[in-house]
Amino acid sequence: MIGLPHRFIRVLQLSFTAYLCVAVVYATYHFAKLPWNDGIRSFPSTLRDSRWSSLKLPQSLDFMASYKSSSTVGELPTDSNINAGLLDDKFYWDTSKVALDLGMGHQGRVSMDEQLFLSKAFGVAMGPSRIIPFYYKATSEVDQEDITITTLITSNRFSVFARLVEHYQGPVSVTIHIKNETEHIRELLDSLHGLYTSSPSMSAHVDVHLVIDNFERQFNMWRNVARLFARTDYIMMLDVDFALCTDFRRAIRSSEQVVGKLKEGNAAFVIPAFEYTNASDGTDSSTFPRDKDSLLPLVDSKRIGMFHASWGPGHNSTDYPKYYTSKPGEVYKVTQYQSAYEPYVVFKKEGPPWCDERFIGYGANKASCLFEMYISGVSFYVLSDHFIIHQNHDYEETARKNERRYNRKIYADFKEEACLRYIRMYRSQGLLNTTLAYNVQTECPKIKNVARLFGQLGET
Ligand SMILES: *[C@@H]1O[C@H](CO)[C@@H](O)[C@H](O)[C@H]1NC(C)=O
Ligand SMILES: *[C@@H]1O[C@H](CO)[C@@H](O)[C@H](O)[C@H]1NC(C)=O
Ligand SMILES: *[C@@H]1O[C@H](CO)[C@@H](O)[C@H](O)[C@H]1NC(C)=O
Ligand SMILES: *[C@@H]1O[C@H](CO)[C@@H](O)[C@H](O)[C@H]1NC(C)=O
Protein backbone atom coordinates (compact mmCIF):
# COMPACT_ATOMS: atom_id res chain seq x y z
CA MET A 1 0.00 0.00 0.00
CA ILE A 2 2.86 2.31 0.81
CA GLY A 3 5.10 1.19 -2.06
CA LEU A 4 2.60 2.04 -4.73
CA PRO A 5 2.42 5.82 -4.31
CA HIS A 6 6.20 5.83 -4.05
CA ARG A 7 6.56 4.04 -7.32
CA PHE A 8 3.98 6.34 -8.78
CA ILE A 9 5.94 9.37 -7.66
CA ARG A 10 9.10 7.83 -9.07
CA VAL A 11 7.39 7.41 -12.43
CA LEU A 12 6.24 11.00 -12.27
CA GLN A 13 9.76 12.14 -11.47
CA LEU A 14 11.15 10.18 -14.37
CA SER A 15 8.55 11.60 -16.71
CA PHE A 16 9.35 15.08 -15.56
CA THR A 17 13.07 14.54 -16.03
CA ALA A 18 12.42 13.20 -19.52
CA TYR A 19 10.32 16.25 -20.21
CA LEU A 20 13.13 18.51 -19.09
CA CYS A 21 15.60 16.70 -21.34
CA VAL A 22 13.34 16.96 -24.33
CA ALA A 23 12.79 20.63 -23.58
CA VAL A 24 16.52 21.32 -23.40
CA VAL A 25 17.27 19.40 -26.56
CA TYR A 26 14.42 21.06 -28.36
CA ALA A 27 15.48 24.50 -27.22
CA THR A 28 19.12 23.90 -28.08
CA TYR A 29 18.19 22.52 -31.46
CA HIS A 30 16.08 25.53 -32.32
CA PHE A 31 18.52 27.90 -30.82
CA ALA A 32 21.33 26.44 -32.91
CA LYS A 33 19.18 26.15 -35.98
CA LEU A 34 18.05 29.73 -36.16
CA PRO A 35 21.21 31.43 -37.39
CA TRP A 36 21.59 29.39 -40.50
CA ASN A 37 17.93 29.46 -41.29
CA ASP A 38 18.01 33.20 -41.27
CA GLY A 39 21.10 33.37 -43.38
CA ILE A 40 22.85 35.68 -40.95
CA ARG A 41 26.10 34.12 -39.95
CA SER A 42 26.52 35.42 -36.45
CA PHE A 43 22.89 35.79 -35.48
CA PRO A 44 22.96 36.16 -31.72
CA SER A 45 19.58 34.71 -30.80
CA THR A 46 19.06 34.75 -27.09
CA LEU A 47 22.59 34.23 -25.83
CA ARG A 48 23.01 36.25 -22.74
CA ASP A 49 25.82 37.98 -21.08
CA SER A 50 27.62 35.39 -18.97
CA ARG A 51 26.69 37.30 -15.83
CA TRP A 52 23.11 36.42 -16.57
CA SER A 53 23.41 32.78 -17.26
CA SER A 54 23.02 29.51 -15.47
CA LEU A 55 20.80 26.53 -15.59
CA LYS A 56 17.93 26.12 -13.25
CA LEU A 57 15.22 24.46 -15.18
CA PRO A 58 11.99 24.01 -13.30
CA GLN A 59 11.15 27.68 -12.96
CA SER A 60 11.85 28.52 -16.54
CA LEU A 61 9.65 25.68 -17.62
CA ASP A 62 6.99 27.01 -15.33
CA PHE A 63 7.21 30.22 -17.23
CA MET A 64 7.08 28.47 -20.58
CA ALA A 65 4.10 26.49 -19.44
CA SER A 66 2.22 29.67 -18.64
CA TYR A 67 2.66 30.89 -22.19
CA LYS A 68 1.65 27.77 -24.01
CA SER A 69 -1.54 28.20 -25.90
CA SER A 70 -2.40 24.60 -25.20
CA SER A 71 -2.42 23.29 -21.66
CA THR A 72 -1.50 19.74 -22.66
CA VAL A 73 1.33 18.68 -20.40
CA GLY A 74 4.47 17.90 -22.31
CA GLU A 75 3.70 19.98 -25.34
CA LEU A 76 6.41 22.48 -26.06
CA PRO A 77 5.83 25.99 -27.25
CA THR A 78 6.30 26.24 -30.96
CA ASP A 79 8.12 29.54 -30.77
CA SER A 80 11.68 28.47 -30.21
CA ASN A 81 12.58 32.03 -29.26
CA ILE A 82 10.92 31.59 -25.94
CA ASN A 83 13.10 28.72 -24.85
CA ALA A 84 16.73 29.51 -25.11
CA GLY A 85 17.01 32.63 -23.01
CA LEU A 86 14.71 31.33 -20.37
CA LEU A 87 16.85 28.41 -19.38
CA ASP A 88 18.91 30.97 -17.53
CA ASP A 89 17.35 32.24 -14.40
CA LYS A 90 20.06 32.71 -11.86
CA PHE A 91 22.06 35.82 -11.29
CA TYR A 92 25.67 35.43 -10.20
CA TRP A 93 28.33 37.62 -8.82
CA ASP A 94 31.77 37.03 -7.44
CA THR A 95 32.99 38.04 -4.02
CA SER A 96 33.46 41.77 -4.19
CA LYS A 97 36.87 42.90 -5.32
CA VAL A 98 37.02 45.40 -2.49
CA ALA A 99 36.59 42.67 0.09
CA LEU A 100 39.34 40.61 -1.50
CA ASP A 101 41.66 43.59 -1.74
CA LEU A 102 41.12 44.25 1.93
CA GLY A 103 41.99 40.66 2.65
CA MET A 104 38.48 39.96 3.77
CA GLY A 105 35.94 37.59 2.36
CA HIS A 106 36.67 34.43 0.50
CA GLN A 107 36.93 33.99 -3.20
CA GLY A 108 33.61 32.67 -4.21
CA ARG A 109 30.54 32.98 -6.26
CA VAL A 110 27.18 33.98 -4.97
CA SER A 111 24.04 33.22 -6.82
CA MET A 112 20.55 34.54 -6.50
CA ASP A 113 17.38 33.79 -8.28
CA GLU A 114 17.18 36.21 -11.20
CA GLN A 115 13.53 37.06 -10.64
CA LEU A 116 14.17 37.83 -7.00
CA PHE A 117 17.03 40.08 -7.95
CA LEU A 118 14.99 41.85 -10.62
CA SER A 119 12.00 42.26 -8.33
CA LYS A 120 14.23 44.20 -5.97
CA ALA A 121 15.96 46.12 -8.75
CA PHE A 122 12.58 47.36 -10.00
CA GLY A 123 10.91 47.27 -6.61
CA VAL A 124 8.96 50.51 -6.90
CA ALA A 125 7.29 49.58 -10.18
CA MET A 126 3.87 47.97 -10.38
CA GLY A 127 4.01 44.20 -10.34
CA PRO A 128 4.02 41.41 -11.01
CA SER A 129 6.15 41.99 -14.06
CA ARG A 130 8.31 39.48 -15.83
CA ILE A 131 11.58 41.05 -16.97
CA ILE A 132 13.71 39.18 -19.48
CA PRO A 133 17.09 40.88 -19.94
CA PHE A 134 19.00 40.22 -23.17
CA TYR A 135 16.24 38.37 -24.93
CA TYR A 136 18.40 39.21 -27.90
CA LYS A 137 22.00 40.17 -27.39
CA ALA A 138 24.01 42.08 -29.98
CA THR A 139 27.03 40.39 -31.49
CA SER A 140 29.42 43.23 -32.14
CA GLU A 141 32.05 44.04 -29.59
CA VAL A 142 31.07 46.89 -27.31
CA ASP A 143 33.50 49.66 -26.52
CA GLN A 144 33.04 50.55 -22.86
CA GLU A 145 33.45 54.27 -23.55
CA ASP A 146 30.79 54.35 -26.23
CA ILE A 147 27.31 55.84 -25.94
CA THR A 148 24.35 53.46 -25.89
CA ILE A 149 20.99 54.72 -27.04
CA THR A 150 18.41 53.57 -24.52
CA THR A 151 14.82 53.58 -25.64
CA LEU A 152 11.41 51.94 -25.42
CA ILE A 153 9.29 50.53 -28.21
CA THR A 154 5.88 49.09 -28.75
CA SER A 155 5.07 46.96 -31.78
CA ASN A 156 3.58 49.82 -33.79
CA ARG A 157 6.94 51.62 -33.63
CA PHE A 158 9.08 48.83 -35.08
CA SER A 159 9.72 50.48 -38.43
CA VAL A 160 10.79 53.79 -36.95
CA PHE A 161 13.06 51.88 -34.56
CA ALA A 162 14.64 50.02 -37.49
CA ARG A 163 15.49 53.37 -39.08
CA LEU A 164 17.06 54.59 -35.85
CA VAL A 165 19.25 51.52 -35.58
CA GLU A 166 20.27 51.74 -39.23
CA HIS A 167 21.21 55.34 -38.79
CA TYR A 168 23.05 55.12 -35.47
CA GLN A 169 25.32 52.14 -36.16
CA GLY A 170 26.21 52.02 -32.48
CA PRO A 171 25.02 50.23 -29.34
CA VAL A 172 21.29 50.32 -28.61
CA SER A 173 19.54 48.97 -25.53
CA VAL A 174 15.81 48.72 -25.98
CA THR A 175 12.97 47.68 -23.70
CA ILE A 176 9.98 46.11 -25.36
CA HIS A 177 6.81 45.76 -23.39
CA ILE A 178 4.49 42.85 -24.05
CA LYS A 179 1.01 42.45 -22.68
CA ASN A 180 0.69 39.16 -20.83
CA GLU A 181 -1.84 37.55 -23.12
CA THR A 182 -0.81 34.38 -24.87
CA GLU A 183 -1.86 35.26 -28.39
CA HIS A 184 -0.40 38.70 -28.12
CA ILE A 185 2.93 37.35 -26.91
CA ARG A 186 3.28 34.91 -29.78
CA GLU A 187 2.31 37.48 -32.32
CA LEU A 188 4.68 40.04 -30.91
CA LEU A 189 7.63 37.68 -30.58
CA ASP A 190 7.09 36.65 -34.19
CA SER A 191 7.17 40.21 -35.46
CA LEU A 192 10.07 40.98 -33.13
CA HIS A 193 11.95 38.07 -34.63
CA GLY A 194 11.16 39.46 -38.06
CA LEU A 195 12.44 42.85 -37.01
CA TYR A 196 15.59 41.51 -35.41
CA THR A 197 16.56 39.45 -38.41
CA SER A 198 15.64 42.18 -40.87
CA SER A 199 19.08 43.76 -41.01
CA PRO A 200 22.63 42.97 -39.96
CA SER A 201 22.71 46.26 -38.00
CA MET A 202 20.03 44.94 -35.70
CA SER A 203 21.88 41.81 -34.63
CA ALA A 204 25.18 43.67 -34.56
CA HIS A 205 24.11 46.51 -32.26
CA VAL A 206 20.80 45.97 -30.50
CA ASP A 207 20.22 44.38 -27.10
CA VAL A 208 16.55 43.64 -26.53
CA HIS A 209 15.02 43.35 -23.06
CA LEU A 210 11.44 42.26 -22.56
CA VAL A 211 8.97 43.34 -19.93
CA ILE A 212 5.87 41.16 -19.77
CA ASP A 213 2.96 42.14 -17.58
CA ASN A 214 -0.67 43.23 -17.57
CA PHE A 215 -0.11 46.99 -17.37
CA GLU A 216 -0.51 49.43 -20.23
CA ARG A 217 2.78 51.18 -19.70
CA GLN A 218 5.37 51.95 -17.06
CA PHE A 219 7.65 54.29 -18.94
CA ASN A 220 10.13 54.96 -16.18
CA MET A 221 10.55 51.33 -15.25
CA TRP A 222 11.12 50.51 -18.93
CA ARG A 223 13.68 53.32 -19.10
CA ASN A 224 15.52 51.92 -16.11
CA VAL A 225 15.55 48.45 -17.63
CA ALA A 226 17.12 49.78 -20.84
CA ARG A 227 19.68 51.74 -18.84
CA LEU A 228 20.53 48.97 -16.36
CA PHE A 229 21.35 46.57 -19.17
CA ALA A 230 23.18 49.06 -21.39
CA ARG A 231 26.74 47.82 -21.79
CA THR A 232 28.61 51.11 -22.09
CA ASP A 233 29.60 53.79 -19.60
CA TYR A 234 27.43 56.44 -21.25
CA ILE A 235 23.87 56.40 -22.46
CA MET A 236 21.48 58.61 -24.33
CA MET A 237 17.89 58.54 -23.15
CA LEU A 238 15.89 58.92 -26.34
CA ASP A 239 12.32 58.58 -27.55
CA VAL A 240 12.22 56.24 -30.49
CA ASP A 241 10.43 58.60 -32.87
CA PHE A 242 13.30 61.06 -33.13
CA ALA A 243 15.53 61.08 -36.17
CA LEU A 244 19.20 61.52 -35.38
CA CYS A 245 20.37 64.25 -37.70
CA THR A 246 23.96 64.92 -36.70
CA ASP A 247 26.76 62.68 -35.49
CA PHE A 248 26.78 63.76 -31.85
CA ARG A 249 28.24 60.41 -30.89
CA ARG A 250 31.49 61.06 -32.70
CA ALA A 251 31.56 64.71 -31.62
CA ILE A 252 31.21 63.78 -27.96
CA ARG A 253 33.69 60.94 -28.08
CA SER A 254 36.31 63.04 -29.79
CA SER A 255 36.05 65.92 -27.34
CA GLU A 256 38.32 65.41 -24.38
CA GLN A 257 36.48 68.11 -22.48
CA VAL A 258 33.05 66.63 -22.98
CA VAL A 259 34.18 63.09 -22.19
CA GLY A 260 35.93 64.39 -19.08
CA LYS A 261 32.73 65.97 -17.83
CA LEU A 262 30.69 62.89 -18.67
CA LYS A 263 33.13 60.76 -16.74
CA GLU A 264 32.85 62.95 -13.66
CA GLY A 265 29.15 62.14 -13.76
CA ASN A 266 27.72 65.57 -13.01
CA ALA A 267 27.02 66.73 -16.55
CA ALA A 268 24.33 65.70 -19.01
CA PHE A 269 24.62 66.84 -22.62
CA VAL A 270 21.48 68.01 -24.34
CA ILE A 271 20.87 67.28 -28.01
CA PRO A 272 18.23 69.92 -28.84
CA ALA A 273 14.94 68.63 -30.19
CA PHE A 274 13.02 70.09 -33.11
CA GLU A 275 9.90 69.41 -35.08
CA TYR A 276 8.30 70.47 -38.34
CA THR A 277 5.52 72.99 -37.92
CA ASN A 278 3.51 71.30 -40.65
CA ALA A 279 3.10 67.68 -39.53
CA SER A 280 3.10 66.37 -43.09
CA ASP A 281 6.69 67.62 -43.58
CA GLY A 282 7.86 65.59 -40.61
CA THR A 283 7.11 62.09 -41.78
CA ASP A 284 10.00 61.31 -44.12
CA SER A 285 13.27 61.53 -42.23
CA SER A 286 15.33 61.19 -45.40
CA THR A 287 14.37 64.79 -46.20
CA PHE A 288 15.49 66.14 -42.80
CA PRO A 289 18.45 68.55 -42.53
CA ARG A 290 21.70 66.89 -41.53
CA ASP A 291 23.69 69.85 -40.25
CA LYS A 292 23.05 73.12 -38.51
CA ASP A 293 23.66 75.17 -41.66
CA SER A 294 20.73 73.44 -43.34
CA LEU A 295 18.60 73.62 -40.20
CA LEU A 296 18.81 77.37 -39.62
CA PRO A 297 17.12 78.52 -42.86
CA LEU A 298 14.24 76.14 -42.09
CA VAL A 299 13.96 77.70 -38.65
CA ASP A 300 14.04 81.20 -40.17
CA SER A 301 11.24 80.33 -42.54
CA LYS A 302 9.34 78.82 -39.57
CA ARG A 303 9.11 75.42 -41.20
CA ILE A 304 10.95 73.90 -38.25
CA GLY A 305 10.86 74.99 -34.63
CA MET A 306 11.51 73.81 -31.10
CA PHE A 307 9.94 70.49 -30.19
CA HIS A 308 6.47 70.82 -28.58
CA ALA A 309 6.41 74.58 -28.96
CA SER A 310 2.86 74.57 -27.57
CA TRP A 311 4.28 73.36 -24.24
CA GLY A 312 7.14 75.80 -23.72
CA PRO A 313 8.55 74.58 -20.41
CA GLY A 314 9.20 71.11 -21.85
CA HIS A 315 12.15 72.29 -23.89
CA ASN A 316 12.65 76.04 -23.70
CA SER A 317 15.32 75.77 -20.99
CA THR A 318 17.53 74.66 -23.88
CA ASP A 319 17.36 78.36 -24.86
CA TYR A 320 16.76 78.07 -28.60
CA PRO A 321 17.66 81.70 -29.40
CA LYS A 322 21.07 81.06 -27.87
CA TYR A 323 21.38 77.81 -29.80
CA TYR A 324 20.74 79.59 -33.10
CA THR A 325 23.49 82.12 -32.52
CA SER A 326 26.09 79.82 -30.98
CA LYS A 327 29.41 79.48 -32.72
CA PRO A 328 30.47 76.10 -34.13
CA GLY A 329 31.82 73.84 -31.43
CA GLU A 330 30.19 75.81 -28.63
CA VAL A 331 28.81 73.99 -25.61
CA TYR A 332 26.75 76.13 -23.26
CA LYS A 333 25.28 75.52 -19.87
CA VAL A 334 21.53 75.54 -19.26
CA THR A 335 20.98 78.49 -16.94
CA GLN A 336 17.17 78.69 -16.88
CA TYR A 337 16.27 75.22 -15.73
CA GLN A 338 12.69 74.70 -14.63
CA SER A 339 11.09 71.51 -13.43
CA ALA A 340 9.12 70.60 -16.56
CA TYR A 341 12.29 70.48 -18.66
CA GLU A 342 12.60 67.16 -20.47
CA PRO A 343 15.45 67.34 -22.97
CA TYR A 344 17.13 64.35 -24.62
CA VAL A 345 20.46 63.90 -22.92
CA VAL A 346 23.67 61.91 -22.97
CA PHE A 347 24.95 61.08 -19.48
CA LYS A 348 26.84 58.58 -17.39
CA LYS A 349 25.11 55.28 -16.91
CA GLU A 350 26.33 54.76 -13.38
CA GLY A 351 25.95 57.51 -10.82
CA PRO A 352 23.06 59.81 -11.68
CA PRO A 353 19.76 58.84 -10.05
CA TRP A 354 17.46 56.40 -11.81
CA CYS A 355 14.02 57.31 -13.09
CA ASP A 356 11.36 57.13 -10.40
CA GLU A 357 9.24 54.13 -11.29
CA ARG A 358 6.09 55.51 -9.71
CA PHE A 359 5.57 57.48 -12.93
CA ILE A 360 3.83 54.91 -15.01
CA GLY A 361 2.15 56.74 -17.89
CA TYR A 362 2.06 59.90 -19.91
CA GLY A 363 2.96 63.16 -18.27
CA ALA A 364 5.94 64.18 -16.14
CA ASN A 365 7.62 60.80 -16.43
CA LYS A 366 10.70 61.97 -18.28
CA ALA A 367 10.68 65.33 -16.49
CA SER A 368 10.84 63.50 -13.17
CA CYS A 369 13.95 61.60 -14.29
CA LEU A 370 15.62 64.86 -15.26
CA PHE A 371 14.46 66.75 -12.18
CA GLU A 372 16.03 64.30 -9.81
CA MET A 373 19.14 64.17 -11.92
CA TYR A 374 19.32 67.96 -11.79
CA ILE A 375 18.88 68.39 -8.05
CA SER A 376 21.30 65.54 -7.42
CA GLY A 377 23.93 67.85 -8.88
CA VAL A 378 23.90 67.03 -12.59
CA SER A 379 23.89 70.15 -14.77
CA PHE A 380 22.75 70.33 -18.37
CA TYR A 381 24.95 71.48 -21.24
CA VAL A 382 23.74 72.06 -24.79
CA LEU A 383 25.73 70.78 -27.76
CA SER A 384 25.11 73.66 -30.11
CA ASP A 385 26.05 71.93 -33.39
CA HIS A 386 23.70 69.04 -32.88
CA PHE A 387 20.00 68.32 -33.07
CA ILE A 388 17.33 65.67 -33.47
CA ILE A 389 13.99 66.01 -35.23
CA HIS A 390 10.72 64.46 -34.25
CA GLN A 391 9.01 62.25 -36.81
CA ASN A 392 5.34 63.01 -36.66
CA HIS A 393 2.77 60.38 -35.80
CA ASP A 394 -0.59 60.17 -34.06
CA TYR A 395 -0.73 60.00 -30.29
CA GLU A 396 -3.24 58.21 -28.09
CA GLU A 397 -4.84 61.48 -27.03
CA THR A 398 -7.41 60.27 -24.49
CA ALA A 399 -4.97 58.13 -22.56
CA ARG A 400 -2.46 60.94 -22.55
CA LYS A 401 -4.93 63.43 -21.13
CA ASN A 402 -6.10 61.19 -18.29
CA GLU A 403 -2.65 60.00 -17.33
CA ARG A 404 -1.25 63.51 -17.38
CA ARG A 405 -3.87 64.61 -14.88
CA TYR A 406 -2.89 61.77 -12.60
CA ASN A 407 0.82 62.35 -12.95
CA ARG A 408 0.57 66.09 -12.33
CA LYS A 409 -0.39 65.41 -8.72
CA ILE A 410 2.30 62.76 -8.32
CA TYR A 411 4.88 65.10 -9.79
CA ALA A 412 4.08 67.92 -7.37
CA ASP A 413 4.50 65.53 -4.44
CA PHE A 414 7.54 63.93 -5.98
CA LYS A 415 9.41 67.21 -6.35
CA GLU A 416 8.80 68.16 -2.77
CA GLU A 417 9.85 64.77 -1.50
CA ALA A 418 12.90 64.56 -3.76
CA CYS A 419 14.05 67.99 -2.59
CA LEU A 420 13.73 66.97 1.04
CA ARG A 421 15.67 63.79 0.39
CA TYR A 422 18.53 65.58 -1.31
CA ILE A 423 18.66 68.45 1.16
CA ARG A 424 18.87 65.98 3.97
CA MET A 425 21.46 63.89 2.18
CA TYR A 426 23.72 66.81 1.33
CA ARG A 427 23.30 68.25 4.81
CA SER A 428 24.31 64.96 6.43
CA GLN A 429 27.37 64.83 4.25
CA GLY A 430 28.24 68.45 4.97
CA LEU A 431 27.90 69.21 1.27
CA LEU A 432 24.92 71.55 1.30
CA ASN A 433 27.08 74.61 0.81
CA THR A 434 29.18 73.14 -1.99
CA THR A 435 28.74 73.44 -5.75
CA LEU A 436 27.38 69.90 -5.81
CA ALA A 437 24.29 71.17 -3.98
CA TYR A 438 23.98 74.33 -6.08
CA ASN A 439 21.03 72.95 -8.07
CA VAL A 440 19.23 71.86 -4.93
CA GLN A 441 19.87 75.29 -3.38
CA THR A 442 18.45 77.17 -6.36
CA GLU A 443 15.64 74.86 -7.49
CA CYS A 444 14.14 73.52 -4.30
CA PRO A 445 13.22 76.85 -2.62
CA LYS A 446 10.82 77.35 -5.56
CA ILE A 447 8.60 74.80 -3.82
CA LYS A 448 6.68 76.50 -1.04
CA ASN A 449 6.95 73.84 1.67
CA VAL A 450 10.59 73.28 0.94
CA ALA A 451 11.31 77.01 1.02
CA ARG A 452 9.89 77.14 4.51
CA LEU A 453 12.15 74.32 5.61
CA PHE A 454 15.15 76.00 4.03
CA GLY A 455 14.25 79.14 5.96
CA GLN A 456 14.11 77.22 9.22
CA LEU A 457 17.45 75.62 8.52
CA GLY A 458 18.91 79.02 7.77
CA GLU A 459 20.44 77.71 4.60
CA THR A 460 19.33 80.37 2.16
C1 LIG B 1 1.00 36.03 -17.07
O1 LIG B 1 -0.14 35.25 -17.26
C2 LIG B 1 -0.02 33.93 -16.75
C3 LIG B 1 -1.24 33.14 -17.18
O2 LIG B 1 -2.42 33.86 -16.92
C4 LIG B 1 0.16 34.00 -15.23
O3 LIG B 1 0.30 32.71 -14.71
C5 LIG B 1 1.41 34.83 -14.94
O4 LIG B 1 1.57 34.98 -13.54
C6 LIG B 1 1.31 36.18 -15.58
N1 LIG B 1 2.60 36.87 -15.41
C7 LIG B 1 2.68 38.18 -15.16
C8 LIG B 1 4.04 38.72 -15.00
O5 LIG B 1 1.72 38.92 -15.07
C1 LIG C 1 1.27 71.29 -45.01
O1 LIG C 1 1.89 70.63 -46.09
C2 LIG C 1 0.97 70.07 -47.01
C3 LIG C 1 1.76 69.26 -48.02
O2 LIG C 1 2.92 69.95 -48.44
C4 LIG C 1 0.15 71.19 -47.65
O3 LIG C 1 -0.79 70.64 -48.54
C5 LIG C 1 -0.57 71.96 -46.55
O4 LIG C 1 -1.23 73.06 -47.09
C6 LIG C 1 0.42 72.43 -45.49
N1 LIG C 1 -0.30 73.02 -44.38
C7 LIG C 1 0.03 74.18 -43.85
C8 LIG C 1 -0.81 74.62 -42.69
O5 LIG C 1 0.95 74.86 -44.26
C1 LIG D 1 9.81 78.94 -20.97
O1 LIG D 1 8.40 79.00 -20.96
C2 LIG D 1 7.84 79.42 -19.74
C3 LIG D 1 6.35 79.28 -19.84
O2 LIG D 1 5.88 79.55 -21.09
C4 LIG D 1 8.31 80.82 -19.45
O3 LIG D 1 7.78 81.25 -18.23
C5 LIG D 1 9.83 80.85 -19.42
O4 LIG D 1 10.28 82.15 -19.24
C6 LIG D 1 10.42 80.28 -20.67
N1 LIG D 1 11.84 80.16 -20.50
C7 LIG D 1 12.73 80.42 -21.43
C8 LIG D 1 14.16 80.17 -21.10
O5 LIG D 1 12.41 80.85 -22.52
C1 LIG E 1 26.36 77.86 4.29
O1 LIG E 1 26.80 79.16 3.90
C2 LIG E 1 26.05 80.22 4.49
C3 LIG E 1 26.49 81.54 3.88
O2 LIG E 1 27.83 81.54 3.60
C4 LIG E 1 26.27 80.19 6.02
O3 LIG E 1 25.53 81.22 6.63
C5 LIG E 1 25.79 78.84 6.53
O4 LIG E 1 26.05 78.73 7.90
C6 LIG E 1 26.48 77.70 5.80
N1 LIG E 1 25.87 76.46 6.21
C7 LIG E 1 26.55 75.36 6.44
C8 LIG E 1 25.78 74.15 6.83
O5 LIG E 1 27.77 75.31 6.36
From TrEMBL:
GO cellular component entries: membrane
SUPFAM superfamilies: Nucleotide-diphospho-sugar transferases
Main location as per UniProt: membrane
Subcellular location per the Swiss-Prot or TrEMBL entry: Membrane
UniProt keyword terms in alphabetical order: Glycoprotein, Membrane, Signal-anchor, Transmembrane, Transmembrane helix
GO MF annotations in UniProt: glucuronosyltransferase activity; xylosyltransferase activity
Membrane topology classification: Single-pass type II membrane protein
Domain of life: Eukaryota
InterPro entries associated with the record: Nucleotide-diphossugar_trans, Xyl/GlcA_transferase
GO-annotated biological processes: protein O-linked glycosylation via mannose
Descriptive protein name: Glycosyltransferase family 49 protein
Organism: Pleurotus ostreatus
Lineage per the UniProt record: Eukaryota, Fungi, Dikarya, Basidiomycota, Agaricomycotina
